[in-house]
Design a protein that fits this description.
There is one protein chain. The chain is mainly α. The protein contains five helices and no strands. Helices cover 79% and strands 0% of the residues. It is elongated, with a radius of gyration of 22 Å. It starts with a helix and ends with a helix.
Length: 143
């Protein structure tokens, strides 16, 4: 959406909440009109912040992939503590799909391997930080 589009949505949202909704006689319809304004306001914020948030998410996942490769490279290689191929493959796939949703196969592989080990715990700590920043970005839109 262009700059003009999100500004237009913002103006429309404000007009619906401040001018149109109060002028509606029926209480249910007034509430619905007000809520439509709230939804438009959220869409305007999402349009305004969306591109910046997508870029930040991609950068977070790229940094995470590099950090996880460093963690896995120094992991023990004994057969009892060796990093499973599923975990290494899931980390490798983060390079091509840099979205938070691409963390799911990695999380499944980690919990399949056992999240209590020191290497898995380090990986999970790094993932939690990325997920926290993702939640913060989503909350910025929801405010």
């Amino acid at each position: 959406m262009s700059f003009e589009s999100h500004v237009l949505l913002e103006r429309l949202a404000g007009q619906m909440r401040r001018e149109i909704a109060p002028a509606v006689d029926d209480e249910y319809q007034r509430t619905q009109t007000h809520m439509a304004g709230v939804i438009l306001e959220r869409l305007a914020r999402e349009a305004a912040l969306g591109e910046r948030h997508r870029a930040a998410e991609a950068a977070d996942v790229a940094r995470l992939a590099a950090e996880l490769n460093d963690i896995l490279d120094v992991a023990p290689t004994s057969t009892t503590e060796a990093v499973p191929q599923e975990v290494r493959g899931a980390v490798a796939r983060l390079q091509s799909d840099r979205s938070v949703m691409s963390l799911r196969p990695l999380l499944e592989a980690l919990y399949g391997w056992g999240p209590d080990g020191p290497v898995a715990a380090s990986v999970l700590d790094a993932i939690r930080q990325v997920l926290r920043r993702d939640i913060d970005r989503r909350m910025e839109i929801a405010r």
